[in-house]
Each structure stands twice: as C-alpha cells, then as structure tokens.
Amino acid sequence: MDTLFFILSKIGQFCIEPLNWVIVFVVLSLLFLGLRKPHLCKRFLLLALADLLLLGWLPSSEVFLRALENAAPKANLSQVSKDGVSGIIILGGAIEGGEIAMDRGEISIYSSAERVTKAFELIRQYPELPFIFSGFSGRLSPQGMSEADAFKQLIAEQGLSSQNAHYENQSRNTYENILYMKPMILELERSEVSGPDASPKPWLLITSASHMYRSLKIFQKQGIHVIPVPVDYQTAHQLRWSRFDLEDGTQNWNRLMHEVVGLLAYWITGKI
Hints:
Elements (H helix, E strand, L loop, with lengths): L1 H15 L1 H17 L3 H19 L2 H11 L17 E5 L3 E2 L1 H7 L3 E2 L4 H12 L5 E4 L12 H11 L7 E4 L5 H19 L10 E6 H13 L4 E6 L14 H23 L4
Parallel strand pairs: 1-4, 1-6, 4-5, 6-7
Antiparallel strand pairs: 2-3
Helix pairs in contact: 1-10, 2-3, 3-10, 4-9, 4-10
C-alpha cells in the first residue's frame, strides 16, 4: 500500500506542477490548430501565457509559501542546551546520490543545501549528541547511492566524528522517513532515559521551512517530540511586488503545491 501511495504521489505531483500545464495548453492549441479551430487554439495559447505570467510574478506564490514557512515556530537554538535534547534528526531531500555520485565520486547538493550545512553546524555544536539522517531517494526508479550513504560520505569529508551517527536509508517520502526512523529514535531514547519517572527529551529536527509543518504533524502523530529547526527559507517578510522571475516562481509554486497536496493526501490516509 505504501508503494502504491508513493507512485500515486509522484503522478499527482507531475499533474499539479503549473509549468507542466503550459505544455498541456500548447499541445492542445496545436491540436485545435490542426483541426482548423483557430478560436480554440487562441484560447489555449492565452491560457498558456496566463499560466506563465502567474508563475513568474513572484507575489502570486510568495504570499502562500510565506504562510506555509511561518506555520511552524522557529526554535531559538541559543536557548537549547545539549542536556535538553535527545539528539538531531536530519530529513533528506537536499542531496543527490544515485549514479552520478557513484560514477563521479562527488556528492551534489540541491538548492535545499541549508539542510546539510545546518546539520554540520549542529553536529559540531553538540558533538556528544546522536544524530540520525533519514533518506533513500524520492525517485520512482532510484539507482546507485542512497541519500543516507551520500551524507555519510559528506560527514567523512568534513572530518566530523561518526561515533554518534545513525542512518536510515530505505525511506522514499516524509512519512517513511519518520516511520523507519522511529525504532532508532525509541532505542536511543531508552538508552538515554534513566529512572521510572524520567521522560524522553525532544529531538532537534532539521528540514526546509516549507516542509516543516507537514513533518511536525507526522512526528506528532507518531508520538515523537521534536523542536523545529527550519532552514531553506524562500520568502522574506515583505512581498516583492515588482519582481518577475520565471525560474524562482516555478520553484516556489512547485514547493507550495507539493506541500499542500502532501498535507491533503496524508490527512485523507490518516498519516497526520
């Protein structure tokens, strides 16, 4: 069932990405041009143009993406001591493993690189704490190195200690991240907690700001207490009303639609 859900989610993601609709509108306009129906051809070309204008005008996506990024509170790490947390959790989604990493021997990092750099920062800041990196691949047919193995290589390249390192390398989406990590988390909490009245401490959770709200909901559903450490912000406090950027706008809309549909799908299936 989880595999079917994963496949359907990828199909749904392709269907909802706004830039893909431009292709659909252009193809339909060419079809009606061939059928000698110029009025329908013009309408679909106008729809394609309107879609591109909506994508590129940044406030159209930023206003919603900013609300999503602000939905999860940002922890003040200066007030977090090593004795107050169980460890660090890093969700995958920023690292390119696969065949390229295997063939080239170098790890590529996506635009969400702050997930990795913030992880390095906290691992250095709290060297005594265990950390868990979770991620295999979000591709339908993954090949080569997993994200977890790629992160393990980055840890070695950075000269960081692997003594407290733990890796989960089977998950393909956020729900599987948490589901497969849960036994590790509970085991580490049991080894840390002493005394019948002691309760487990929260974990520091690193992921993109737009992805944090959905992640928190799943952790809450699984009964795991985390402190959000959102990174990879894509919006500021003020909207850029005069800015038109097709590349940034497309990425914003893709992030936004991915999270909104993910929240809806997880709510329908009882995952949050």
